[in-house]
Design goal:
Layout lengths: L7 E5 L7 H11 L3 E6 L3 H12 L7 E4 L5 H15 L4 E4 L19 H22 L7 E7 L11 H21 L4 E8 L13 H11 L8 H12 L10 E4 L9
Parallel strand pairs: 1-2, 1-4, 2-3, 4-5, 5-6, 6-7
Bound molecules: ligand 0WD.
Ligand 0WD binds next to helix 1 and strand 5.
Length: 259
């Protein structure tokens, strides 16, 4: 029997088969969980998302269009989820966005207000909005997971406004964990090492980051998506019932080294 047998929930953020959310969905499916998948609306996007999920062997996936900047879309996701599952046990927030013009070394200081607000809205505020709605359909408690990166703590060339967003996201995880704990809802972040996805390719200088991690991390390599998936399983399963408000690094140990 799988570690997540009988559990059901939402996985936000599959864009294609490389998405971290896709690795998480695969690991959840392997452990017996049932997932529904909100995705960024658009015909082309839907085709890619469907293909990625069907590639996991999940036929007829529950796809729910949702632009995380729109409250009405988030409301619709919860309504559809209630119809489908009645209640849920987990929610994975694996979405982020920033205008790539400003994700280049030397461009942080140029970040316009609009790009800043958009990055923080999609990458951070959406977690608060999702948690507010999800708690209504988590009567038995549950687990919420957000994806973050070390650029929240240290200045990583090119990560720029996204680093600011991740710092805010990590603080948001702690405040949500503190407030929702009495409802039995745990909220944690997973800080993944770099992975080649649509989002990470937008970060100028990403190839140098991969090379550096492979040379300098304690494990002397980059991580694999499946390793994030396994940690997400841990955070949703009963193996982690005493864990909330944490930021768990899955980064081959890179964050512990000084040089
Ligand atoms: O190295 C990496 N890839 C790392 C990613 C290291 C550590 C953390 N992360 C984080 C990202 O910051 C993000 O929070 O993991 C999360 C998932 O990112 P990903 O899997 O690397 O990227 P991707 O496959 O592009 O998925 C992110 C998706 C979007 O993709 P695109 O490429 O279409 O922008 O977030 C979704 C969208 O599917 N997204 C939205 N969803 C709903 N509403 C929105 C939106 N407004 N904007 C973006």
């Amino acid at each position: 029997m799988g570690l997540l047998e009988g559990r059901k929930g939402l996985v936000f953020g599959i864009a294609n088969d490389r998405s971290i959310a896709c690795h998480i969905a695969r690991a959840f499916d392997d452990e017996g969980a049932a997932c529904a998948f909100p995705y960024l609306p658009g015909e082309k996007n839907e085709r890619r998302v469907r293909k990625a999920i069907e590639g996991l062997g999940i036929t007829n996936p529950d796809l729910i269009p949702c632009d995380a900047q729109k409250d009405e879309d988030l409301d619709a996701v919860i309504a559809a989820t209630k119809r489908r599952f009645d209640s849920i046990d987990f929610l994975v927030h694996s979405i982020a966005f920033a205008d790539r013009t400003y994700l280049k070394p030397g461009m942080f200081v140029q970040t316009p207000r609009e790009a800043f607000l958009q990055a923080l809205d999609i990458s951070v505020y959406s977690l608060i909005a999702m948690a507010k709605l999800a708690k209504e359909i988590m009567p038995n408690g549950g687990s919420i997971i957000a994806m973050t990166y070390y650029g929240s703590e240290k200045a990583i060339p090119g990560y720029n406004v996204m680093g600011v967003a991740k710092a805010a996201l990590e603080a948001t995880v702690r405040y949500l964990a503190a407030e929702l704990g009495e409802k039995g809802i745990r909220v944690n972040a997973v800080s993944a090492g770099p992975l080649r996805t649509l989002s990470s390719m937008a970060v100028g200088g990403i190839d140098e980051i991969f090379d550096w991690v492979a040379r300098k991390s304690p494990l002397r390599r980059n991580i694999e998506g499946g390793e994030v998936g396994k940690t997400a399983v841990y955070l949703v399963s009963d193996l982690s019932t005493g864990v909330t408000g944490e930021n768990i690094f899955v980064d081959a140990g890179y964050n512990i080294v000084g040089l």
